[in-house]
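dumping these here so i dont lose them again. two proteins, back to back, each one seq then structure tokens. dont judge the mess
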Amino acid sequence: MSKLSEVRNTFLTGLLILIPLATTMYIVYWVFNALDNLMKPEIQKILGFYIPGMSLIALAVLVFLLGLFGRLAVGRKLIEFIESKLMKIPVLRTVYSATKEASKAILVSETEKIKGVVLVEYPRKGLYALGFTTGGIIPDACVKTNKKLVNVFIPTSPNPTSGLVVLVPEDELIYLDMNVEDALRVVISGGFTKLG
């Protein structure tokens, strides 16, 4: 290997370390500033002073208290009541339900939301896409097709939070002996991740 190739490879290695690290740090910094700016005036009003980072502590306390309230019977009843009212307002109904589903998808544990890693013949016969089977089924679709259909989420690369859901007959699925984390790494890296 020539000196120039060695320098180039070293530079590329440095970029591969820097880009994900810098991106992560920037996102954390942006979220921190956004929360800080949002809550700073209220905290200053209540306490009379403000220390950078207090917004995050206040937010964590608020989330915890909401969680405690939501676990009580009276809290559940109140939340159900508010949700029922929100679901009657056309635009708010769409925003609220979409946000709730997205939150569930992100926050529910991997074992609950993803049942297995599969190969699906998609977008045509002979080509295979990596997919995740989910716990949900659509009974009406199974009845109308007279097949046991499994919901499979096919993520897009490099952003696995977007993709599409296909309903696949169970006998056409190829289950892989692969954990969810490894499969997600393959998707995020665009297939460049080495496994095994």
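---- next one ----
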Amino acid sequence: MTATLINPAETDALFAPDDNEYSERQQQIEFIRSIGIVPLVTLNSPDEAVPLARALAKGGIPIAEVTFRSAAALEGMRRIHAEVPEVMLIAGTVHSVDQARRAVAAGCTGVVTPSFDEQVVDWCIGSDLLVMPGTAAPSDIEKAWDRGLRLAKFFPAEAYGGVKTLKALSGPFSDMSFLPTGGVNLNNARDYISLPNVFAIGGSFPVPSKAQHEGDWDTIIKTCVTARELVAPILAEKAE
């Protein structure tokens, strides 16, 4: 994983006030922000893992959130970690501490949860592991904020008001940044990534299911390129 680092002062809003060291966790977050997209990957078979990860990297999105929605998840994580180390590996749909532990052992450097699971979040914080807990209501966001987190997943984004809700949340939670997923696609990507409180956007849209089933890695590369071309100019404006 190669990231272009910026001044540590520019990342202050993502962390609690006492987190002053420009840590590995901050570098991971800065890497995600520089890409702006977190592809959600559900593997049908471990054999898909390596070619799919290589397609993501070639398409300019070297990040894979491999979800625990299939039995192929852990073995797929292991293969990506071993054979495509340039891809940032994140575990998605994590429901338990045991899953989080197994994901880390398989090579994941971060965890994403579908809801605010206090046990999983607290274990990740105690392990100094990047965690993006799922939030859908102010009470969830408050729990994340109380734990010193300044970054959270917003899921399911479209079902819970999408862009309109995120704009409303920017008032009471001005120092929180969000990773909206759930209904985010190429048609509304610009709307989401343009929001000041959106750190990156997530979803399965960079990996069309038909292309994945057919092993059509060229289509996935092209889709990733298209997605990056959509968000890159907006990310550049936000960085100014």
